[in-house]
Input
Amino acid sequence: MDIALTPQFVSGKANEIAGATMVDWPGRPGTRVSPFSSHQIIERELMMQEEYSEMLNDFSGFMLRKYVPRAFSNLKGTSMLNLIPTVVTNTSILAPFSSQEAQDTFQKLAQIGAENEKAAAATAKYSNLLADMGFPPMMTGISEAPYDILGDYFRGTMGIFEDMTDPDMEDYVEHACYMFAEQQIQSLQYFRFADMPVKRVFFPLHKAMDGFMSDSQYERFYWKPLKKIILALIDMNVTPYIYTEGPYHTRLHHLTDVPIGKVFYHFEDVDMAEAKRILGNTAAICGNLSISRMEFGKKEDIAEDVKRLLDVCAPGGGYLFDFNGSLENCKPENLEIMFETLDKYGKY
Output
């Protein structure tokens, strides 16, 4: 069966209005990104180490007053939204919402909402079109490992490394990761009620590859909070789609710690024979066809790579053919030989 990666259009105009500081994209005024490239992430340290307690004790307040103005340079009006109940006999408690800076931000938020609605409508249009053509969506939800949320959007890669290796900070990291796990579980509760063609949630794993942390750190900070979300989704009859990034040779044994037949794992850089041996009785696996070879390699090599993956991974079932990353450019003849080889050998 063929499936389609669910198109997910994001509004560049909405990001432009907000003054997004964490992403650059083709078409943005002043961009350095090629028109032939996807968007580029600009990692920033948006929470200081000394702000863990504030973030953990008053998450919504921290997000409004500190995070949003730092992440979106045109939305600084949220920085003064502080409600202090003293004598609440009139509307004076709402004064922070009436400032000119807050009102300007509210107007921008309305514009951002309108632009995001256009993007959502385009996503729905093309998702339905693909479904009508016989290509059901691959996933109907997205989440992240809690450690990645903390590292990607709050502390940055170097900041969270510093925290994780500081005995005075490691408990804060763990606490934050479990808080984000609970938040993700709550945000995914719609799967209990929504009527969907498939129920799968995509997890791109950003900061857990070999060498990023020790095995014990991976277990404590990365895997256990992530597994909490995975098990909650399985309880909702949802399939977690775990998309590992980078080399993952030393992490495979952790991935067996899930209910049998309820999860599938995508791999970029791993020995697929070893992944099949370790995970074959637990979960489905996919991925590993090199996108760089699709762009620069010879078609004979592509045919051999496809056949090798099928020979190693297909026996006994449980393999979904896929690239090792997101294919953006490739030689047409390489794509043609890939499909020809799949058609010839990719049948159970």
Remarks:
- The two ends are 12 Å apart (CA to CA).
- The first helix runs from residue 12 to 18.
- The chain has a mean pLDDT of 93.
- Residues 291 and 327 are 6 Å apart (CA to CA).
